Amino acid sequence: MTREAIPLVVDDLSAFTRTLRADLALEASHQTVLNALARAGGFRNFQHLKALRQAPDAEAPPDLSAVRKAAAWFDTAGRFTGWPVKRSLRLLCLWPIWARLPAGEFWDERGVSDRIHARCTFRDAAGIRREMVGEGMLWRTRDGSAYRRVERRPDATQRALIRAVG
After folding, report:
1. Taking every annotated instance into account, which residue ranges of this chain make up the domain DUF2087 (predicted)?
2. Which of 14, 51, 110, 158 could be bridged to 154 by S-S, CB 3.0 to 4.6 A?
């Protein structure tokens, strides 16, 4: 049975914390409960949550559940072991491969395939290349004679997976 995600929006976390402490008769301090609630929401602590919420273009924290699921598709040497069925997970799994492609270099089809195969335990460089080109992670000429890594800034979840696999 799949679990339904139910979002909870709280206008005032401090008031929410006071009510929660009273209802649960918690002896922990107000600040301790604020930090616990922030950690449960994926932040380091309450200050981290507050800083990200006040920043105009704050980045969301990494989705650690997605990182764990994607990291399971890599062996202990950091090699991609197969294609996940779920598309979002498949695309996330491309980032550690992308991160290990040298920036600023051009390769022919054979050269990029060799680099991809070095990062995989299975041979599907064509499929990985197609996905990476489709996602804007790799650039290629119309005839496929030259490839180059496209420089992008991975989001927090993608960076967390790159670190976990690396």
Report:
1. 79-149
2. 158
pLDDT tens profile 25-36: 888 898 998 888
Contact 120, 55 (CB under 8 A): no
Whether residues 98 and 156 share a domain: the answer is yes
Provide the whole-model pTM: 0.66
CA–CA distance, 3 with 136 (Å, rounded to integer): 33
In a domain, 135, yes or no: yes
- In tens, the pLDDT along 56-115 reads 666 778 999 999 999 999 999 999 999 999 999 999 999 999 999 999 999 999 999 999
CATH number at residue 70: 1.10.10
Examine residue 1 and state whether it is found in any structural domain, yes or no. Answer: no
Question: Which of 51, 70, 40 is closest to 163 using CA atoms?
Answer: 70
